[in-house]
Amino acid sequence: MSVLTSPRGKAEIVHCRRTESHDIYCIKSLIRKFTQKLFGRINIIYLLEKANLAITLCNDKEEIMAQGTFLDYPNWNVAKQDDWVSVFRELDSDLPCTPLNTLFMHLFVAVDEYSTGCCKEIIRSVFKAVPELHFIFLTVPSYMSIGSTLITVFDQVGSVPCLTYSEDFTVYVCHRHSHYPQLYIRRARVEDHDELMPVFMHYNTILKETYGEYFLAELIEAQDEENHAVVCEVKGAAVGFMSVCSSVNMELLHACFDLGPFHGLCFPHPEDVLEPPQELSVEGSQGTPLRASLSQNSQKIVEEPQESVTPAAMENTQEKVIGEAASEEASSAGQNGNAHDLEDMEKLRHIPTGHGGSSRASTSTSLLEEPRHFRPIYKGASAAFCIQLFCIDERYEARQVSLDFMNFVFSLFPNKNFCIISLPHLTPEFVLIQNFMRMVPFNNCSLEQDLYVFHRAGLLKSINIRLATLLDTPGVENLVSTLLLNKSILEDLTQYNKARRDPDGTPLQAFVAEVAEQIVGIAVIRNEMDIEYIRAHYNIEDFIYFSHHQREEHGHLYHFALNPIFRHYTKFFLKEILRLGYKSCLYYPVYPRSRDGKFQNPYAHSLTSALHYLVPVRPRRQIVYPLEKLGINAPSKEVSKDLISYALNHTNRKLTLEPKITVNAKIVVVGASSVGISFLETLAFCSHLKFNNLTLISTHGLPGKNLLGAEQRKFLASDHCFNDKDYALMSLCSWVNVVVGRMTGIDRAAKYVVLSKGEIVLYDHLILCTGQQYQVPCPTGADISQHLTNREVPHSSRRRYTGQVPCNHFTLSDEEDCLKALAWIRNNSITSEGNVIVYGNTIDTYTTVETLLNLGVRGPCIFLVKPPPTSTITCINNYSVESAVEDALRGAGVTVYQDAILAQWNDGLDPDPIHSASFTTPTKPFRLQCCMFFSFCEKNVDYETFKALNDACLVYDGRLVIDTNFHTNDIAIRAAGSLTKFSNRYYSNEWTHSNFNSKEIGFQLAAAMLSLFDPTLEPVTEPPADLDRLIPMYKGAKIQGGILPGSYHYLHIAKPAIPSPLEVVMAQPNFGSEIITGTAKSGTYFRIHINKYKMVETITCLSKEPFPTSNYIRLFGQHEQLLNNMCARYDDNLIKDFYSYFTESWCMALFHDRFIDLRKELRQILASKEEETLPSIEQLAHQIEDEDLRLKEKPRAYLRRVYKETIYKPLVERSILDYLHYNYNHLPMYAWPGII
Q: Residue 339 above 50 pLDDT?
């Protein structure tokens, strides 16, 4: 916040922010004729799309006071955007301008009265936002004066000619030191104490309370060869302090952090152990032996699973590998005028190449395996010093000032090459450590601090990004020598040097980063040839206006490798790729691994350390088109083609100087349920946040491995929250650390989770989403030889089975369980011999029976045994569907038993394996021979989970008790999903998260958490006391589906509700109506329930043929008139088959992912007062409802007449036509005025 005062004495409180698209109208209103003469005729939207930095200045009423736009190349076409440096250096030899330290002003507008103050404030904001920036150039026609405003910050330096026509342009420059003078750094003196103490006390008083009032003076006095204290001063007054020490506990750091990229922060020693014994190997998460050697082969193992990058996500793993591949001395060139750079150059040349690092080879890394991973042993002396204490007045806190400190402290330790600092991981990332590299902690690290490392070479500013040449090949070979895809990188580099194009003719570009005539980075891009597919399948328009980018401006990033010493230049590297390559956007896909755990070649890209500097792009929900029916009106093949699914990451010119907010809080999610995955997805796709410590604890790791294709999916019914394609499109393994294990305990005081083998996982926020699983049934023990009935045996549903689980007993909860069951079926010839018992009365029993039949198990060998129902509501709750399924079971020869209770396995003898099972019924007992036993009789919280919760003293009342904000009785522990129930104080025991859509629950859980980390969100306000007793009601549809016996494809979509029998619901007076086409037994059944408000509330489908499930889900919640007056057409007998009806071209727009945005826009139009003298349509509707209007005609006719006679009708029509026109790539089957 700053205060501007006009010449007339008026004051305005102003603040700066990034320019947004809705600012364009106000910016245009500030453009004057003088502005056009100064900057030329400008398309504001186009300029903002291509700008590296655009700053808007607003007052406290959010009124725009000024705006400035800055790019990394000059305007007025005085130089090519890839070759301006030489032109501007000729102007003044004392201006060492480089692409790193220079921007160009392309537009400045301001309110006339405050223009001078606004200009200075924007310039200051630009220098603060870009710490490396030293010069801002302004180019104007030579016959123009820059005016009284800009002359206050710019100085003339010369003139340059135009490239296209004969006219000279005057060049002005603005220097950083005019706004942020370089601070003087010196050794601290005791007399600095009084000036520095207020700075320390401004932040906290802990040091003073711990070490006494004069701790700072004592620290300064204690300086010696190993301990130094330095200050920065302004006008003779100390405003910042740093204490450094060369004594570092290297043993602790080696035990806790992967320091391989930097040779363990030690000098090389002959006795260093950098490679393990040849016989040492480790097991990967899938049980595949993986060599732990850190030679070139092992580096390939580290890099191989692209989608499975481990702790701290993909970024740090790549940097580790690249760091080992690239020479750590990678170093340095002198920058003009910087004596430290010239001194450091020789020292850096003697740093040896670093080897070593973690051999974690998969996301699914068991903590048990961690101790067996080889870790290098470093015998050399420490090459690092540490920062013990740092503080600076917030008025002078800028990264450039912090680097001024670093220059000085490195000169105090001429024999050290690394500076380290450790911070509590909840400490917000401040400017000093933004140039540091965060080290990857080992899985068993119990330190509650993060370690950051800075290399001496990072002080150098002489990094140069340029197009590669043939002479760069040896340097690139050295850089990438240990990368798995080094051959691919070198082949692309050779192809670029040879032809500048791929063999298929696609333009190809290769760029290198160079320091001290040494290659420290390589990037290879191609023109993005599938941009129409990307636009149609990913929400890239969340980040760009697609129409303002030429096709050739979209680039595809194939390879990116940068020495970790220079990681803080990653964004600069990307920015230079865009500038030198004449690109505006870059795209980087992350492909899933194939079933064998390897890359799906030829689609593999080299791993990139730049991933955290890109933004993940959300995939778009696709319409399932009836292509044959649409014919020539179908979308183009570029839109509808089916490619291998991948997660897309993106950057553009606007994002190159956009910082991300780093969140180091340890967020641990237990359970890979739909709720947990939705929670992680929401956090991972927050483009402006960077979560470094997202961890998932799961028994089988991340789902979505697509282990057996569609085959194993049929075992269990689906809630249609996520499928394998969704997991591939998310690539959560790029952002989430995955620990394979089972939670057995929680230490709330120490904040860690205990796993089954005794390992611990620390947390700051613990999210419990374990859900409920099928449990092993506990036999009653009844002896059926005594002919007992159900009434005569003890009720065992509440008893827990504690014996050994038989090897041929299966409870299926996820795809891994299904895989094991399928393997057992195939390995034990179940399809040709032996009986199978399926015990339970859930929908999963039906889908499992159908899967068994589909696998070849004969129907007479399958026994479906149903226990007594615990409710009057069946799992399908539709008599027509149930009758069709029962007929299909009889037709297949499957024997069905009703109301049977499990009595014994193997007549009470050893149950492993199960050879027979005995059951009691209301009449007579029976005994069945079996080779496999599937149990689906009860879902409950896993006992180990319950015990962990109970031992941690979390309130448990049948389920884990939470409040409306997902909190348990521990503020640091939240829970969601079927594991939970609401507290009794809400008096809503019938409602739990099980009644709602799991994906929506996960999203809302993440939204509740984001308020803790995202400063852009409004602070959460506590609800009024009377509303605090209301549970939240979520609106997403509750969905279940699967393939039932008879090969019926089943889908049921309904609004969240307390379960009730369908007959009872239909008997309610406010039920509405149901419309049905087809019959269940013929496999053409389609039922739609329309509520009393004419909204679609329930959909039930049973079909012999597959149908587009995702399309039908979009029908939920729509008004029947929106479905082409469906009820009227049905009543007129015009609809014979809903399956055919919903493949007609008129409904494609309803299935479009942006249709909901159109509905909101139309609602906003009808709710707005477009004419001052008339109420809005919405207000008229309320007045009619409240009987405030006396009408001579029917209300509906009145509203229709008002709508047609006012401006609303053309506004609505224009909005709809704009929607169809903008989404023409997806909706070419619609016509609009002018197309015919």
A: no
